[in-house]
Design a protein that fits this description.
This protein is mainly β. The protein is elongated. The protein has one domain: Beta Barrel (Lipocalin). The strands form two sheets. The chain has a ten-stranded antiparallel β-barrel. Strands 1-13 form a two-stranded parallel sheet. The chain is built from two helices and 14 strands, in the order αββββββββββββββα. It is 7% helix and 62% strand.
């Protein structure tokens, strides 16, 4: 009963402390490739990835959120970092990969909540968490435009969560399914590219005592250096 009351209390609010980051889908062409990119959406995402061999890659990402409302005093602050290692493959005009990694984050949100039984009240939510994830991706390998579909599965464990001055009585880890679609545009043979991404996030197992952002839309630019030359890749495909 106590657990149910906590869930009802939180679901009536709008103070997200878990803000999923942009999915980093490198889809390398070959060994020795380096990618760095920056994105703006729910916050600011900085991403990097390196292909160590023709099939093994590593990545590191950082997210920072600092949003304030113009109409009231509500705000969201969040920071998160992660690192991952994975396997990738090129097959004809299709690339695919799977990465697994670990990250840590913390968030603070101040907002107004209310339901049928309570008067709207300002509340402060804070939390610290760790996340394990597996992220498979598949996409095209063309000269100009490429599409990428990612299906990240995240195990999110809040080690600490405090809502309106009260520490959560329970805090079971939750499994999130976080699919995303990415559109990437290359500028000819230039190493610069631009991309947009739309993604969702929802729980598939476990109850959350915290609020989270279920949707994100981002836009950014990236730099791709080394690896297989683009004209070589085009001739092979």
């Amino acid at each position: 009963m106590k657990k149910l009351l906590w869930i009802v209390f939180i679901l009536s609010s709008c103070a997200p402390v878990y803000v999923p980051n942009v999915r980093n889908a490198a889809l390398f062409r070959g060994a020795g490739e380096v990618q760095v990119s920056g994105h703006v959406g729910n916050g600011v995402d900085l991403q990097s990835a390196v292909s160590v061999t023709d099939h093994i890659g590593v990545m590191g990402n950082y997210e920072f959120v600092n949003r304030n409302s113009e109409s009231d005093d509500s705000y969201i602050k969040h920071k998160f970092w992660e690192a991952a290692i994975g396997y990738y493959e090129n097959s004809d005009k299709i690339c695919y990969e799977i990465f697994g990694g670990y990250g840590r984050g913390e968030g603070t949100a101040y907002d107004n909540y209310g339901d049928l039984f309570t008067v709207p009240t300002d509340v402060l939510a804070t939390g610290k968490y760790q996340r394990f994830f597996v992220q498979p991706s598949i996409g095209s390998n063309h000269r100009i435009f490429n599409w990428i579909v990612s299906g990240r599965i995240s195990y999110v464990d809040f080690e600490e969560f405090i809502y309106d001055g009260r520490r959560a009585a329970f805090n079971d880890p939750a499994i999130f399914f976080e699919p995303a679609f990415t559109g990437r545009v290359n500028f000819g043979k230039s190493p610069i590219y631009t991309q947009f991404q739309a993604g969702f996030s929802f729980t598939t197992q476990g109850s959350t005592v915290y609020d989270y952002e279920p949707f994100h839309l981002s836009f950014g630019f990236g730099l791709r250096l080394g690896g297989l030359r683009r004209n070589t890749a085009d001739s092979e495909n």
